[in-house]
Structures are given as structure tokens and as C-alpha cells.
Design goal:
Order of helices and strands: HEHHHHEEEEEE
Distance between the termini: 96 Å
Largest sheet: 6 strands, antiparallel, barrel
Number of strands: 7
Shape: rod-shaped
Helix content: 55-70%
Oligomer: single chain
Length: about 350
């Protein structure tokens, strides 16, 4: 009788495979647990670090945010444009003020010349009137005498007319020659002509008396010239007053623009717009202004708060207000700018620096 063949024992092999699988599962589970614990601690450390950073910057009163300004920045360019415009306005106002000052000198000189003529015109009018008062009575008496002389001459002419008839009769009867008659007739005509000339002289004398006893054309012209002179002087006075006010206002405007430029020179944008070298600035919030005294040391830190080193000093602070986003909280904050003198230029690119002292003990 044949003996049956023995079947291989597979149980041990299955047991070994199951053990390896269980060991693999335990390894994966342990690794997962370690990773989960590490991730949990990392998150916890991150939260604690974030909370620490938030709390640190919430209570720290010495941080500042570096700001790099150049001549090509928008604010610097705008500032430079306004500065050039102000300087050009000053030059234009100076030219206008010089022209106005020259015009004022000319108007004052012209007015003084006119006012100097007025006493002479008034003196001439007074002198002419005084002469008229002296000459008028004498001329009036002469005019009356002339009238009386003309009346007598007229009577003589009437008698000569009668004599002319007698001369004609004597000539006709042959008592006188023609030459004697012509000579007597010439004498009569000469007397008539003298009478006519005397009447003409009397009329001219009457006109002269009228001129001396009333305001004549010469006096009226002098009075008219005097009135014109006073009116022109009054117009010059008004023009001078207006020009003086405009000149005063121009000078005030020049002074105001000069003051504005002096104030602008205290701005960091003026230094950036006009300077040749790159200057370093930092924004300081109002809450931290006590640390921003001139000469205060500046520290730059790794991770924005630890392992700090001194990198420079504060050389100036500017009065104008600035607004930026908080470098950590990203909220709008108000403050001012300071100028930094840095020995390490790369610190100007840091997110924050600290003023006065290290924020921590290291």
C-alpha cells in the first residue's frame, strides 16, 4: 500500500506576512502621529510667534520704517515742479516790481515838476492882475482925455468944412491962386485924417482898458493851464497810490514765496529733488517720536526684532506729516520722516529699524 504525499505547511508563511504588514502599519501610524504632533507644534509655535510679533509691535515705541526717496519719485518730481514754479514766480514778480518802482520814480518826478510850475503860474496871474489894477485907472483917464480931444477935433473939422466952402469961393473969384487953394485943402484933409487916426487909437485904447479891467484871454489861458496842471497832478497822485499798493503787494508776495521756499527746504522731498546723492529716510509714527531725537543710534535686526546691530544715527527730523501702511499690521498710520546716516546701506531696505536702543536684550 502506497504512502500519501505530505502537503506543504503554509501557515508560517502567512503569519510572517501578516507580521510584516502589521509592522508596516504601525510604522506608518507612528510616522503620521509624529508628523501630526510636529505640525501641531509648528502651528502652535507659528501662532505664538505671530502673536508675539503682533504684541511686540503693538507695545514697542522705538521702531521706524525705512523709506527710500529719489529724485524720480512722483512726490519728488511734483515737489520739484512746484519749486521751479515758485522760483519763476519770484523772478517774474521781481521784474514787475522793478518796472513799477522805476515807473513810480518817473511819476513822482513828473508830479514834482508840475507842482513846481503851479506857483510860477499863480505868481504870473497875480502879477498880471496887479499890473492891471495899476494900469487900468491911468488908461481909463487917458481914454477919457482922448474922447475929449476927439470931440474938440470934431468941432475943428466942422469949422474946416465951412472954410473949405470959402476957399472954393475965393478960388472962383480969383482972390487966391490954385496953389494956395490946394495947400489949404491939403491942410484940411490932413486934419480929417488925423481925426480918423485919433478915433482908431481911442477904440484900441478902449480895448486895452477893457483888458485891464476884466479877465482877459491871457489870464484865462493861464487859469486854464493852472487847472489842467492841478488835474494832471491829481491823476498822478491816484496813479502813484495804486502803483505803491501794487508794489507793496508784489513785495509781500515775493516775501511769502521766499518763506514758502525756506519752509520747503525743510522737506525731505526738497533734499531728494535737489540732491545729487541718494539719501536714506525712515517713517516714524507719532507714538514713537520720543525715540527719534537727533543723534539717536539706529539698529537693524534679524527677523525684525532679534540679533540687532547698530547701523547708523538719526541726523534730522522733518515737521511735515506723512501717512503710510503699517509694515506689520497693514493699517494706515500717521507720523513724520527722519533722515538717517547709515554705515550699512542695505539696512535702508529692511522692513523696520529701531531707534535709541535695541528692542530686546540681544
Amino acid at each position: 500500500m502506497a504512502t500519501p504525499a505530505l502537503e506543504p505547511d503554509v501557515k508560517p508563511a502567512k503569519t510572517k506576512a501578516a507580521g510584516r504588514q502589521a509592522l508596516h502599519y504601525r510604522f506608518i501610524l507612528a510616522t503620521y502621529r509624529i508628523f501630526a504632533i510636529a505640525a501641531l507644534y509648528a502651528v502652535l509655535i507659528g501662532v505664538i510667534a505671530y502673536a508675539f510679533v503682533m504684541g511686540f509691535y503693538a507695545v514697542n515705541a522705538s521702531w521706524a520704517a525705512p523709506v527710500i526717496l529719489t529724485a524720480t519719485d512722483e512726490k519728488s518730481l511734483d515737489f520739484r515742479e512746484k519749486l521751479i514754479t515758485s522760483q519763476q514766480s519770484i523772478e517774474d514778480l521781481k521784474v514787475d516790481a522793478a518796472k513799477m518802482d522805476s515807473g513810480l520814480k518817473e511819476m513822482r518826478s513828473h508830479r514834482d515838476s508840475l507842482l513846481a510850475l503851479e506857483p510860477e503860474i499863480a505868481s504870473a496871474i497875480t502879477s498880471e492882475r496887479a499890473h492891471d489894477r495899476i494900469d487900468a485907472p491911468a488908461l481909463s483917464a487917458l481914454d477919457r482925455q482922448k474922447l475929449a480931444d476927439d470931440a474938440q477935433t470934431k468941432q475943428v473939422l466942422a469949422q474946416l468944412d465951412a472954410m473949405q466952402s470959402d476957399i472954393q469961393k475965393d478960388l472962383a473969384s480969383g482972390l487966391i491962386t490954385r496953389a494956395d487953394a490946394a495947400s489949404q485943402m491939403a491942410a484940411i484933409n490932413q486934419t480929417a485924417t488925423s481925426y480918423t487916426d485919433s478915433r482908431i487909437a481911442e477904440v484900441l485904447l478902449t480895448d486895452t482898458v477893457l483888458d485891464k479891467t476884466t479877465i482877459g484871454a491871457t489870464t484865462l489861458e493861464a487859469l486854464e493851464r493852472q487847472a489842467e496842471l492841478r488835474a494832471e497832478a491829481a491823476q498822478l497822485d491816484v496813479a502813484i497810490q495804486v502803483a505803491e499798493k501794487e508794489l507793496t503787494e508784489d513785495n509781500r508776495q515775493i516775501a511769502r514765496l521766499h518763506d514758502a521756499i525756506v519752509t520747503a527746504r525743510q522737506s525731505p522731498y526738497y533734499l531728494s529733488a535737489t540732491g545729487q546723492n541718494l539719501l536714506n529716510y525712515a517713517f516714524v509714527p507719532y507714538d514713537n517720536q520720543a525715540s527719534a531725537a537727533t543723534g539717536s543710534p539706529i539698529y537693524d535686526c534679524y527677523l525684525n526684532m532679534i540679533l540687532c546691530r547698530k547701523v547708523g544715527v538719526v541726523v534730522a527730523r522733518f515737521p511735515g506729516e506723512e501717512q503710510i501702511l503699517h509694515p506689520i499690521f497693514k493699517t494706515q498710520i500717521r507720523g513724520f520722516l527722519i533722515q538717517m546716516d547709515l554705515q550699512h546701506e542695505e539696512s535702508a531696505k529692511s522692513k523696520t529699524v529701531f531707534l535709541g536702543a535695541k528692542p530686546l536684550l540681544f
